[in-house]
Design brief:
Layout lengths: L14 H20 L2 H14 L5 E6 L1 H16 L3 E6 H6 L8 E6 L6 H10 L6 E5 L5 H5 L2 E3 L12 H17 L26 E6 L2 H17 L3 E5 L15 E8 L4 H16 L4 E6 L10 H19 L17
Parallel strand pairs: 1-2, 1-3, 3-4, 4-5, 6-7, 6-8, 8-9
Helix pairs in contact: 1-7, 2-7, 3-7, 3-8, 7-10, 8-10
């Protein structure tokens, strides 16, 4: 399958140009955010709230922000924080009972989503300590709540690339502030890799899967594939994929597994059984493995290290299929 990509007739940056600009500065912005004393101080404030007796962490977001929260969830739990990640839609439809010990993080790269505004208006004074995480320093969210704000300003490109990485970094700041063992930790290496996707050119649907923190990145990959490539993509926790969904395997469906080099026996055996089933079905498959040894940020390290390769994978899949990648037909960057 070959798709021609033409520049915009107005000479304005194309959607793909905007995405690539975000990608080109995301690593620099990640390090600027990580080393910003103001953000470190705010992270200490959030960490202090999480140290209070009975503290419970609720992570709320929509779209890519929710998937970044899901990726961070395992890392919070691994340092002893009771934590839950919900979409704002679920929080609005099925509110949790009031809990004075609840610490809420509202996460939105734009700080302007409609669900975010509705949640804050409906919640009133029922919330305990509440903070924001955003990329947009002038946004509604940052005006309403004490917030961690990543470097570089709002993301302009349609699909989440830079914003997803920076949201993970903001979570990392909180984890570093909370855990004394991570006080002098630096970010892991953030880089991409070239992938041969020629065997994926004819597939008509994608499945992404990962365990724990990587399940959140798998969800982000599926969302990006739908947004940019405009073809079906599903995401599953690794084990859930074995409970029925293997029936969709065929030469026209591709599976991408996101894995860690230090995966548990359960995770390794589960991945191997899925790959065996994929091979028997003639299903193109790919494993992306994060090399992790004594991870400085615990379970957040793997999604940080695989973030850029997954970004490029999603964009390359879209380039095989769509002429004007990054130029939405029915959606917008900020869903108000």
């Amino acid at each position: 399958m070959t798709v021609m990509h033409t520049p915009t007739s107005t000479g304005a940056p194309s959607g793909l140009d905007l995405i690539r600009r975000e990608q080109s500065r995301q690593v620099a912005d990640a390090h600027a955010t990580w080393n910003d004393p103001a953000q470190q101080q705010r992270a200490q404030q959030i960490a202090e709230s999480l140290r209070q007796p009975g503290a419970f962490l609720l992570l709320l977001g929509m779209g890519a922000s929710h998937h970044a929260n899901s990726a961070a969830l395992a890392a919070y739990r691994s340092v002893g924080i009771s934590a839950l990640a919900l979409s704002l839609d679920e929080a609005l439809s099925m509110p949790l009972p009031p809990n004075a010990a609840q610490v809420t993080l509202l996460v939105s790269q734009s700080g302007e989503s409609g669900e975010l505004r509705t949640f804050l208006k409906q919640s009133g004074t029922d919330l305990g300590p509440t903070f924001g995480l955003s990329l947009s320093p002038e946004s509604y969210l940052v005006r309403q709540l004490p917030s961690l704000v990543a470097a570089g300003g709002s993301e302009v490109g349609f699909a989440a690339t830079r914003s997803y990485l920076l949201t993970l970094v903001l979570h990392g700041l909180i984890l570093r502030a909370y855990s004394p063992d991570s006080a002098h930790t630096d970010l892991p290496a953030l880089d991409g890799e070239a992938l041969d996707l020629s065997r994926f050119g004819q597939v008509r649907s994608m499945v992404f899967a990962g365990s724990g923190a990587l399940a959140g990145l798998a969800a982000m990959a599926a969302l990006g594939t739908i947004e940019l490539g405009r073809f079906p993509a599903l995401h599953y926790d690794l084990g859930q994929l074995r409970h029925g969904p293997l029936e969709l395997l065929s030469p026209e469906t591709s599976i991408v597994l996101l894995r860690r080099s230090d995966e548990t026996d359960y995770e390794r055996q589960t991945a191997e059984s899925i790959l065996k089933a994929a091979q028997a079905a003639g299903c193109p498959s790919l494993s992306l493995v994060a090399e992790v040894s004594a991870p400085p940020l615990g379970l957040l390290t793997a999604p940080l290290k695989l973030c850029l390769p997954v970004q490029q994978l999603v964009i390359d899949l879209a380039l095989q299929r769509v002429e004007r990648v990054g130029e939405p037909v029915r959606s917008s960057k900020v869903t108000r």
